[in-house]
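pinned: reference chain
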Amino acid sequence: MDGNIETDNWLDIHAASVMRDGRCLLDHVTLAIARGTHTVVLGPNGSGKSTLVKLIERRLYPLARDPDGATRPHVRLFGRERWHIADLKAQIGVVSADVQREFADEEALSAFDAVVSGFLATRGTAGVEAQVTPAQRAAAGEALARVGIAHLADRIVGTLSSGEARRVLIARALVFHPQVLLLDEPCSGLDMASRRRFLDDLRGLARGGTTLVMVTHHVEEILPEMQRVVMLRDGQVLADGHKQALLDDAHLTGLFGLPVEVKRSGDWYSARLR
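pinned: its structure tokens
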């Protein structure tokens, strides 16, 4: 039995626990997200957010049995438990500061090559040029244009600003026209102006039909389009619900373990320590 089911959820995690070096990084997590639901996973450093991302990416797997021994955990993506990684990349695009740092280490990697390498199992196209098809090149150009950086196609990634380089990563994720864009601390390292421009880009993608999931510890990065909040603390789901119900002083104080004051300005939220 392959564990495939018909579902409206793109993500369905049940009773998943992840252990690493004797530590429980995720503890009995159950979480389902419907297609089209823009969601933020919010939590402090060390709460298990990055582990959750790796679980979704298939870079980590849950324990075969729940700690109580009675439940078989599962992680289903678009109703399927088993995926070839190449097929999964076409459904879920991932943007993270970690990937950007890996590209920055490639001294001669252009923005165009970084984007077209999304079709390949590489960080660039060196040595595999023959594998890149004209259709893939055209898709890379379209993705760069979609995020407004077609004029940067020939620039070396390491010479771009952090905001420009983050747009390259979005373009790389978009070459497959994925159903979901998974954003892992996407504004890390961006200044205030670059962050706002980047968040505006993400809002455009949300309005264009791409399901967004943002993993962050910054309340001010939560887009107006994101109505659902999943609060993660100590590897467990602390709360899960509508943004207006959870983004208040009491919930955020419980989440971060310090007295937090929340303010709202229009459709945006911010938080500070009291």
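why pinned: Residues 37 and 211 are 6 Å apart (CA to CA). The chain has nine helices and eleven strands.
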